[in-house]
Amino acid sequence: MKSAPGNADQRAEPGREMLIEVIGLHAQAMLRMPWVQSCVVLGIGLCILSFIDVRMFVAWAALTIGVEFLRARYAKYVLLRGFDVDPRHTHAVFVSLAAASGASVAVGVVLFLPRLPLLYQALYGVIVFAIPAAGVAVAQSSRNVLAAYAMCILLPSAATWGVVYPTQAIGVGALSILYCAVIILVAADGEKLLLRSVTIRNQRDQLVRDLEQRNADVRAAMGQAEQSAKARARVLAAASHDLRQPLHALSVYSAVLASKPAPDLLNEVSVNIDQIVRALGNLLNGLLDLSRLSAGNYVPEHQQLTMDTLIGGVCAEFSQAAAQKGLVLVQDLKPVRVMGDAVALGRIARNLIDNAIKYTDAGQVRVATGLDDSRPAQQAVLSVRDTGKGIPAAEQGKIFEEFYQLDNPGRDRGKGVGLGLAIVQRLCELIGAKIQVESTLGEGTEFRVSMPAALGAAVASAHEESAANSASLAGRRVYVVDDERDIRNSMRALLGVWGVEASTADSVKDAEALFAQHGPPDLLIVDLRLADEEHGSHLADRLQKRHGAFPVLIITGETSSDALREAHEGGYALLQKPIAAEVLRREIVSMIGAS
Amino acid sequence: MKILIVDDHALFRAGLRMLLATIGRNVICLESASVADALALIAQHADLQLCLLDLSLKNEHGLGAIQRIKQSAPQVAVIVVSGADDSATIRSCIDAGAMSFIPKSVAPEVLTQALQHVLSGAVYLPDQIMSAMEDMPDRVQLTPRQHQVLRCLSRGLPTKLIARELDLSEHTVKDHIAMLFQALGASNRTEAVIKASQLRLQESFAVHG
């Protein structure tokens, strides 16, 4: 009896669901009504048939049973339609049908009651007045259905009785109305009960759904944790393989050198060692970048920058590499301003262009910036498109994984280390950009990085970037404090090349002496960990207190997130060893500018 | 002496080539990055004596490569030079017909030593596989004939080729092998090769080359 329409719409408001419930129950009851009505007609016929015209009775019986068949037919239709019915409309039809059914009973009273002897009038009256009471069960807690049914029977019947016996008109009328009211109240109570049970059922369903949802959430979280653990294991395995390979090769060259090779071999040895060390350095730097990006240490800046100028600068770095491979590096840079991090965006562009050049043998690499107006929020777009061999659709999801390399199962280091796109993806996440890849085999690949554009997009851009590169550092005074002699020597040599007046100190005492003798420098470069447990940024703090403020650059070989955070807390600029010359230069220029 | 180096890391190959040229006399090195190229080179150079083989090659594992090389050229002694160094891998390489195993992770001076061993025709295996076999008789007295048979076995020669090389009948060679196993306390070729590396048999390839 629990009819399906009750579950039609799980989020339905209780009223609507209640209506659906009532309709379902009522329709079920309706199916039996023709047979019930036939019995009633038969009973009435037995009582009164001897006093009235048979044809008249048959016509009435046909009418009232016909109405019940109509009701049953409609109920069947509703039950078959199940979820599709509009509950309000259906309910209204049921109310009308109930009224018709009641009226058909009342027609009998109007026709037959005046023609009967008193005793049979009373008997007929009892039967007719009992019918609405039975209707309570049939109406199934719908006040409206019951009210229509009861009133359509009782009011014409009471009126007929009043016409036949005018002296009783008031009494019968009043009693009928009272009777009507009572059975409608009873139906209302049933309605409340039904509403409560429907509510309880709703709550139960909701609980079950919540529970299922939570289970699904837990499963998803577990799956994700498992996946990230797997990814970490994969990175570790790939990294250890890729780190060991160059180490093994270095070990061979070390054996070659130890066994006193012929002098003409030495040149080849040194070239090869240089290649291996470079590859190893690239790999370590890539891993370092990845770990920095993952450890959450990198806080992207949010400053307005002109994307086209920035990307133009990056393109300039690659013009030679492209020319060497015989590729045309096409620049289509429309002015775009974005809010973002210049370092991250530059690195994204660098890695994408580097990849494009690496995987393209002939044709062109096209770098474009521009605006995409197709979406409501205007997007700044960086696109790097090549005419390389393309990426198979099945591989496109994997290319952002660490150490994944297309067509390089032998992990030939000449093709890079396989970290470039992984870094690009992390950086995009960090600066809130989206990266998409579109590729056709044999035709080429396009990477599109899109991020929200800054308002007032196109403004002719300044040339801060190129200014930084050509800035002169000649005559600036820089102190280098590091307890490793090699670092001090190489720093002094490097700074000397740039015309910087560099002084070095290997200990706290030395550094203090340097300050006492020559005063504060234009820049202090200090190692994070000095000998005797001394901390570079603490030393800088003390010296600044004594000698006034001066720029400080901390360098460190540490990679643990704790050490890095510690260094950041001092508020000083930080570079991680090994430091490439151009990186150091850029940093120094940005800190103390050109003289 | 002609040596083939099979490794997919070009810089490692170059390093091995230079090292071999420095420590060996009249060494001619051929190089290949894949098993297919290696097999082609072996077919071209009938006088090839040694093959230094990496286990992790592009798309293929070196174990299968050992078998393929031994099938097409049983006279070539296969020396595995691998990043792996676990006993199971070493054993399965010898099972497959390799003569020696040099882990890439050894110290530079050990690498030089190992290659010198291998160039002199001796078996080289890392220490850990030998310490796993302690039941070595203190003194093993082998007849000159048994020495010869052990060397041939170590190089991974099948009985038929041993017989041809020593100018004996196959039946006699089988008898020698049985006696040799008994003397060494070995039950199969792999164990005999391990014993041979413990004995550090110093014989020159040139004698048989």
Task: Please characterize this protein's 3D structure.
The complex is a heterodimer of chains A (595) and B (209). By secondary structure, chain A is of the alpha/beta class. Chain A has 4 domains: 4-211, no CATH class; 233-294; 303-465, Histidine kinase-like ATPase, C-terminal domain (Heat Shock Protein 90, 2-Layer Sandwich), CATH 3.30.565.10; 471-592, Rossmann fold (3-Layer(aba) Sandwich). Chain A has 16 helices and 12 strands. Chain A has helices spanning 14-48, 54-81, 87-112, 118-139, 143-164, 169-258, 263-294, 307-324, 342-358, 420-431, 464-470, 485-497, 508-518, 536-547, 561-569, 581-592, and strands at 303-306, 328-333, 337-340, 364-372, 379-386, 434-440, 444-452, 477-481, 501-505, 523-527, 552-556, 573-576. In chain A, strands 2-4-5-7-6 form a 5-stranded mixed sheet, with helices on one face. In chain A, strand 10 (523-527), helix 14 (536-547) and strand 11 (552-556) form a beta-alpha-beta unit. In chain A, helix 1 (14-48) packs parallel to helix 3, helix 1 (14-48) runs antiparallel to helix 4 and helix 6 (169-258) packs antiparallel against helix 7. Chain A is elongated, with a radius of gyration of 45 Å. The N and C termini of chain A lie far apart (92 Å). By secondary structure, chain B is of the alpha/beta class. Chain B folds into 2 domains: 2-129, Response regulator (Rossmann fold, 3-Layer(aba) Sandwich); 144-207, Arc Repressor Mutant, subunit A (Orthogonal Bundle), CATH 1.10.10. Chain B is built from 10 helices and 7 strands. In chain B, strands 2-1-3-6-7 form a 5-stranded parallel sheet, sandwiched between helices. In chain B, a hairpin with a 2-residue loop joins strand 4 (56-57) and strand 5. The longest helix of chain B has 15 residues, at 170-184. Chain B is globular. Residues 202-209 of chain B have low confidence and may be disordered. The interface between A and B is medium-sized, with 27 and 26 residues.
